Inverse folding.
């Protein structure tokens, strides 16, 4: 709990959590009998599906929906496909989910399918998109700008999460190997690594440049690292990749090292779980494991109307189902008790200006939220720098009128993208 | 356990769910959260949040108004005594003043909360916190001798027409307290005019009871001389032991409140400083062009600053964030124009001796336009994406 006095002369300061001294190994969880995989492509009745219910898949097999699909998932276990159905995410995008029935006899050591992996971006994109940590190979393969700099992030981007720090403490050598492989794949000139100030990491970094990041939120966000350590300002509506900088999390770098060593794709993701009382657990689960199984492991009881947040408290999105699977990019899961979740708030903005004062991107958030509430997304982008938002969520945290400004912004950006795609 | 908390916990079941008085739930909730913080844990869509909410925010303004209020009560008693030729001690004056002021405040809150509860119940919404401040600001702008039914009428107009018909706190484009005052000002000019304490004929020091702003110097004399003859020298205007509306007389108390609001970042300093700068600049210009030394045109910036309700208005009314512009540049212009307009109305329009209220309301109407212009300017300056 963050304590603040009644009179507050300073802006609230939120600090990143640091990983405990001598952290325990994450709990392992058995591979469940059914695994759910999310595939970022909608079902299309006019095309012929490549896979059918009842098809059997190998561990490590690449699964595509159609012959011209750009998206794929990697089967984390050997088994049979039981369900193929449509899935709608929090922003209303349709995609597909698959349920794979696990062949019970296998353990996590069962050999996975090996690939013909070469050290180039096309080969990595062909097989390794779904590695734990979700390396952005798709973005890199499509990217038109040459990537000069790779930044490996050992500092977690959101509060409460310690996944990246844990991996940095325990697998630094793998991260370094992964970074070198990445450098060859991408052809980058410079490799950097972000390490939280208070994280004690021994060892040589050789040619890797180390950025010690501040413990105050939001200094670990990509846009802030660009600004503070690389002296670049992220222009509105651009991604770091457009500037030739690529951010890859520590876990992705470590799993790339593993993947190139074994020529196969790993599927075990480390997740930080925050229980209802704020207790922190760490678990190593196979991608596709329903969250329910993890909660059972730590005896976190989920009641009706409790809230499950995927991601940190500032930037996360809640899910409606305890059967939501572990995804490659899922670092943190928070469970909030239903007593802490009350009615919907429809206060109007009172123009107090706290959001403007705290915004690291200097956005006029008080006016922006008026445009967003009125669904005027184009105007919001033109007049109030909607696209300059670096998505830290501090505006919603400080809001006097309790307006979910950050959620408005996320929805606004999403809708704007849709509008532009239609135009 | 705190007995107050016990009381709330015991009665809560009647007001929530299927309790007997569940239609009064907004009222219960508003009373409870006035005494206790709502649960400090996360309550809304963002998963965690700072606990300073609208009610705390508003209570800061109430704290800032305390010096003004206490001095206003004392001054009311002091002036009442003086008009009868009596010189009360501090305590006597304070108690006498409280007999005038407290009923006005009670009526304001009672009538205001009646409307708030009515609208909140109709909308199925919580009682908005805005009335906490409006309900204290409004009485402070009134003369102490005003009939209570007029107070009730004024706050009703302010809350209903000034705020609720537009959707409640946050959606009003005029300051509700000033809207209510403007209504009374134009409807009942006699009780709102400057002659508050009709001086007893036997007063020795010749206090007329009129406010400083209605004074015009006789032919050939300077306004400042006429003012100090009437008991309005600069120091009494600054400290505030003069007749006038309850809260507006003491420039010092207003400045203390303003400093508190600026330090806690509740009020925007741009509006206050902009307003004072605008007022000083305009008075200087009038000083240069004016021919008649006997009018307020020639009073100079300090007299304009300390007399009347300008400081009260610019510190507590103009800084109402809802009806002020949302951009920083807009706030500078907003403040500056309030200062400028106040002086223009004071000196150029013989019908209104005091211009602050009208200037603020006028600029309230223009603040969306100011924001619009500022945003347009910023967008035009931006380097286009090629």
């Amino acid at each position: 709990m963050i304590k603040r006095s009644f009179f507050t002369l300073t802006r609230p300061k939120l600090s990143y959590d640091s990983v405990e001294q001598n952290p325990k190994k994450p709990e392992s969880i058995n591979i469940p009998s059914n695994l759910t995989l999310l595939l970022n492509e909608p079902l299309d009745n006019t095309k012929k599906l490549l896979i059918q219910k009842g098809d059997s898949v190998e561990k490590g097999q690449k699964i595509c929906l159609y012959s011209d699909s750009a998206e794929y998932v990697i089967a984390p276990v050997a088994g049979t496909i039981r369900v193929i159905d449509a899935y709608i995410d929090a922003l209303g995008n349709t995609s597909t989910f698959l349920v794979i029935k696990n062949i019970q006899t296998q353990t996590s050591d069962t050999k996975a399918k090996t690939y013909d992996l070469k050290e180039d971006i096309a080969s990595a994109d062909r097989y390794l998109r779904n590695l734990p940590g979700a390396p952005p190979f798709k973005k890199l393969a499509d990217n038109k700008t040459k990537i000069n700099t790779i930044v490996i992030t050992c500092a977690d981007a959101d509060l409460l999460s310690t996944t990246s720090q844990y991996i940095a403490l325990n697998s630094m050598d793998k991260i370094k190997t992964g970074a070198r492989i990445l450098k060859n794949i991408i052809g980058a000139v410079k490799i950097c690594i972000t390490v939280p100030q208070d994280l004690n990491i021994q060892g040589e970094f050789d040619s890797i440049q180390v950025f010690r990041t501040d413990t105050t939120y939001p200094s670990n966000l990509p846009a802030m690292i660009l600004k503070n350590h690389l002296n670049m300002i992220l222009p509105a509506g651009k991604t770091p990749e457009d500037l030739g900088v690529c951010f890859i999390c520590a876990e992705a770098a470590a799993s790339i090292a593993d993947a190139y060593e074994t020529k196969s794709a790993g599927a075990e993701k480390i997740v930080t779980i925050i229980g209802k009382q704020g207790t922190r657990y760490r678990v190593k689960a196979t991608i596709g494991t329903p969250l329910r199984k993890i909660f059972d492991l730590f005896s976190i009881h989920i009641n009706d109307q409790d809230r499950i947040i995927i991601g940190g408290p500032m930037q996360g999105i809640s899910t409606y189902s305890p059967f939501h699977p572990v995804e490659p990019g899922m670092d943190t899961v928070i469970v909030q008790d239903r007593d802490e979740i009350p009615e919907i708030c429809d206060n109007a903005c009172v123009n107090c200006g706290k959001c403007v004062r705290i915004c690291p991107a200097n956005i006029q958030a008080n006016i922006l939220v008026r445009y967003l509430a009125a669904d005027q997304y184009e105007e919001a982008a033109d007049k109030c720098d909607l696209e300059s938002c670096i998505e830290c969520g501090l505006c919603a945290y400080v809001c006097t009128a309790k307006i979910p400004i950050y959620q408005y912004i996320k929805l606004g950006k999403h809708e704007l993208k849709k509008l532009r795609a239609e135009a | 356990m705190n007995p107050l908390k016990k009381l709330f916990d015991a009665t809560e079941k009647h007001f929530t769910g299927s309790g007997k008085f569940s239609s009064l739930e907004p009222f219960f909730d508003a009373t409870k959260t006035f005494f206790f913080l709502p649960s400090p844990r996360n309550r809304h869509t963002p998963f965690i949040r700072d606990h300073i909410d609208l009610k705390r925010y508003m209570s800061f303004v109430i704290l800032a108004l305390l010096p003004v209020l206490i001095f206003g009560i004392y001054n009311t008693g002091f002036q009442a005594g003086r008009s009868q030729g009596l010189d009360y001690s501090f305590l006597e004056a304070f108690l006498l003043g409280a007999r005038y002021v407290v009923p006005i405040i009670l009526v304001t809150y009672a009538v205001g909360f009646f409307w708030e509860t009515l609208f909140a119940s109709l909308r199925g919404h919580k009682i908005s916190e805005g009335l906490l401040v409006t309900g204290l600001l409004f009485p402070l702008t009134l003369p102490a001798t005003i009939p209570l039914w007029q107070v009730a009428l004024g706050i009703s107009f302010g809350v209903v027409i000034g705020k609720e018909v537009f959707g409640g706190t946050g959606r009003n484009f005029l300051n509700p307290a000033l809207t209510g005052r403007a209504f009374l000002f134009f409807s009942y000019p006699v009780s709102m005019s400057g002659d508050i304490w009709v001086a007893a004929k036997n007063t020795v020091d010749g206090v007329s009871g009129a406010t400083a702003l209605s004074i015009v110097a006789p032919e050939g004399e300077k306004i400042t001389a006429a003012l100090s003859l009437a008991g309005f020298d600069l120091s009494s205007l600054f400290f505030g032991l003069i007749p006038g509306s309850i809260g507006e007389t003491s420039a010092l108390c207003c400045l203390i409140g303003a400093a508190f609001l600026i330090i806690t970042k509740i009020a925007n300093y741009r509006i206050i400083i902009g307003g004072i700068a605008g007022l000083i600049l305009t008075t200087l210009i009038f000083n240069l062009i004016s021919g008649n030394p006997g009018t307020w045109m020639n009073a100079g910036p300090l007299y304009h600053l300390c007399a009347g309700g300008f400081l009260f208005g610019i510190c507590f009314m103009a800084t109402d964030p809802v009806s002020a512009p949302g951009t920083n540049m807009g706030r500078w212009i907003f403040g500056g124009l309030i200062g400028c307009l106040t002086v223009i109305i004071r000196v150029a329009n013989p019908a209104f001796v005091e211009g602050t209220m009208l200037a603020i309301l006028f600029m309230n109407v223009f603040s969306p336009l100011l924001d619009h212009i500022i945003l347009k300017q910023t967008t035009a300056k931006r380097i286009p994406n090629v």
Summary: Chain A touches chain B through 52 residues (CB under 8 Å). The first helix of chain A runs from residue 121 to 127. The two ends of chain A are 46 Å apart (CA to CA). Chain A has a mean pLDDT of 87.
